[in-house]
Every structure is written in C-alpha cells, then in structure tokens.
C-alpha cells in the first residue's frame, strides 16, 4: 500500500480545497479567485505555512484567470519538472512547506519574461498596512 507523505505543519487551518491544491497538486477554476482583482500594496504568502512568496509590485493581469506574478521573493519557491496531463511544465512549490502553488511559464512581461501562474486559494494576501506585515 502506497501512503501519501504527511503534510508539514500549517499556519491556521486549511479548507479542503486548499489541501487539494497544496498537498494533492490540484488547481482551482480559472477566474474564481478574488485575488485576481486585488490591487493593494502588500505581500502574498503561502496559506499553508505563511512563507512570503510575492509582493504586489510583481503582480500583473495575465488574462490567464489565475493570479500572476513576474517575479518571486528570493528563496521563496522551488521548481520541478511536471510532465502530468501530457505536457511538460515547471511546477512551483513553496520552499518552506513544499506545497504546490502553481506553474511558471516563459511568457511573462519584462523584466523577467516569466509568468508565475498561481492558485489564488493557496495565497494569503497581507495588505501593506496590515499588522501582519512583518519584515520580509
């Protein structure tokens, strides 16, 4: 019998959809994330562990239906080859808890040319004026 690895400790509690995405490599429906329309300054953190991932300055409207970023905070993510679904992509994982965040594609805007296409359900947005906005 093959067992799934035990998830690492999490900050707070996760919904069943967040567990499906972070731990089972699922995805959310395109266009379903309220974060698609988020425009305030702040930081996007992993909902599984609180690790800072992206700043609002790197967010842009990609038209993909998922929150998209052209850059990531240093050391925040890990990447690995994903050949599921009959295609080769680059999966993006939280460097801290190893949770699935989404994928990165080479079709983003300057200066990086990258599009980090993330599942909004696994992002915890902390507005810049929030009391939770500790140093990154």
UniProtKB/TrEMBL annotation:
One of its GO terms (cellular component) is cytoplasm. Gene3D superfamilies: Peptide methionine sulfoxide reductase. Pfam families: SelR. This is peptide-methionine (R)-S-oxide reductase. GO terms for biological process: protein repair; response to oxidative stress. Transmembrane segments: none annotated. Residues 7-128 form the MsrB domain. GO terms for molecular function: peptide-methionine (R)-S-oxide reductase activity.
